[in-house]
UniProtKB/TrEMBL annotation, chain A:
Keywords: Electron transport, Membrane, Mitochondrion, Mitochondrion inner membrane, Respiratory chain, Transmembrane, Transmembrane helix, Transport. The chain crosses the membrane at residues 44-62. The lineage of its organism: Eukaryota, Viridiplantae, Streptophyta, Embryophyta, Tracheophyta. It comes from the Eukaryota. It is found in: Mitochondrion inner membrane. InterPro entries: GRIM-19. This is NADH dehydrogenase [ubiquinone] 1 alpha subcomplex subunit 13. One of its GO terms (cellular component) is respiratory chain complex I. Complex I functions in the transfer of electrons from NADH to the respiratory chain. Accessory subunit of the mitochondrial membrane respiratory chain NADH dehydrogenase (Complex I), that is believed not to be involved in catalysis. Its main location: mitochondrion. It is a single-pass membrane protein. Belongs to the complex I NDUFA13 subunit family.
Automatic annotation (TrEMBL), chain B:
Residues 71-103 form the CHCH domain. Accessory subunit of the mitochondrial membrane respiratory chain NADH dehydrogenase (Complex I), that is believed not to be involved in catalysis. Complex I functions in the transfer of electrons from NADH to the respiratory chain. The immediate electron acceptor for the enzyme is believed to be ubiquinone. Keywords: Disulfide bond, Electron transport, Mitochondrion, Repeat, Respiratory chain, Transport. It comes from Eutrema salsugineum (Saltwater cress). It is found in: Mitochondrion. It comes from the Eukaryota. This is CHCH domain-containing protein. GO terms for biological process: mitochondrial electron transport, NADH to ubiquinone. PROSITE patterns: CHCH. Belongs to the complex I NDUFA8 subunit family. GO terms for cellular component: mitochondrion; respiratory chain complex I.
Length: 143, 106
């Protein structure tokens, strides 16, 4: 039905006299809204904050130092173990190298036996120190 | 490959066995080690330091055999742990303590 039939009041002359139906404030108006700033001045002072932060920093750096001490001890343990087993590993490698070198010198003598004036083996450097053989490959059977 | 001994019962000097007994080697074979290193520093030629190298090998292999005979199970456990964790001391503390309790460092 039209609005006039729903909202009519008895004795109405035209639609323009219909009672109002609109959204509005409650009686007495809305309660007031606060829009003023309220930033409190309580809480720790600047010095207190500074001391707390630098205290946390100092404690953290102390913990870093302690951790470094522990890590250094672990590294030292590892290096000490390596130092202890270095000689036996080097001794075993020396034995292997000496036997291989002898075989190599025999092979060289065999290959160069017809070349006049060739001194087998050790015709490397002139400084007098021993240098490992510079063949470009340390252990061809391994690589 | 994770067994510490070969067929005749001698410990094989693999990396796990050597790092497991490194503290003992460093303590009990120190004279031979130092002599060998001094010889090497003097002359790096391998043929010149063969005798001292043989001293080192004899000392270390004898020490490994001795350790293995005295505390076989703890040493096997420690070597197994070292093999599993690739020679990280910090991951094998329990086995290390058990090993050093039975075979002390003195």
């Amino acid at each position: 039905m039209t609005e006039a039939m729903i909202r009519k009041k008895p004795g109405m002359a035209s639609v323009k006299d219909m009672p109002l139906l609109q959204d509005g404030p409650p009686p007495g108006g809305f309660p007031p809204v606060r829009y003023a700033r309220r930033i409190s001045n309580t809480g720790p002072s600047a010095m207190a904050i500074f001391l707390a932060v630098s205290g946390a920093f100092a404690w953290g750096m102390y913990q870093v130092g302690q951790g470094n001490k522990i890590r250094r001890a672990l590294k030292e343990e590892k290096y000490a173990a390596r130092r202890a087993i270095l000689p036996i590993l080097q001794a075993e490698e020396d034995e292997r190298f000496v036997s291989e070198w002898k075989k190599y010198l025999d092979y060289e003598a065999d290959v160069m036996k017809d070349v006049p004036g060739w001194k087998v083996g050790e015709n490397v450097y002139n400084s007098g120190r021993w240098m490992p053989p510079a063949t470009g490959e340390l252990r061809p059977d391994v690589w | 490959m994770s067994s510490a001994v070969d067929a005749t019962g001698n410990p094989i000097p693999t990396s796990a066995v050597l790092t497991a007994s490194a503290k003992h080697i460093g303590l009990r074979c120190m004279p031979e080690n130092v002599a060998f290193l001094k010889c090497k520093k003097n002359d790096p030629n391998p043929e010149k330091c063969l005798e001292k190298g043989r001293d080192v090998t004899r000392c270390v292999l004898g020490l490994l055999k001795d350790l293995h005979q005295k505390c076989q199970k703890e040493m096997d456990d420690y070597v197994g742990c070292m093999y599993y964790y690739t020679n990280e001391f910090d991951l094998c503390r329990k086995e290390q303590e058990a090993f050093e309790k039975v075979c002390p460092l003195k």
